[in-house]
Task: structure prediction
Amino acid sequence: MFDFRPKVNVTVTQTGETFACAIGDSVLQGMLRLGRKGIPVGCVNGGCGVCKIKLVEGEISKIGPISRAHVTAEEEAEGYTLACRVSPTCAVTLAVAGKFEKPFTKGHAAQAGPSSTTP
Ligand code: FES
Result:
């Protein structure tokens, strides 16, 4: 079945991955719906905090409560949130910022191949 809802692009800075997310879907749902990767996936229900992200560019709206156990009020004011609890309202760029940021980033770097060396 076709999904005719309006969609916007979501880009993950660490991987450069971009996927189309329907407005109204959470960023994480949009990614999972397309079978894409980039943001760590946990409970998909706001409870574990592994999908923590930082909004770099664009606008998002909350579609569920953000647990203070995972995102403090100060962090939220700085753009941190949970990908399973927000929906994009326009094209957005975000950075993975959760517990798995390091292994996730390292793993991606390893897939990208060896880094160049200076001559
Ligand atoms: S996946 Fe668990 S809080 Fe988002």
User: Anything to note?
Assistant: The chain has one domain: 7-108. The domain at 7-108 is CATH 3.10.20.30 (Ubiquitin-like (UB roll)).
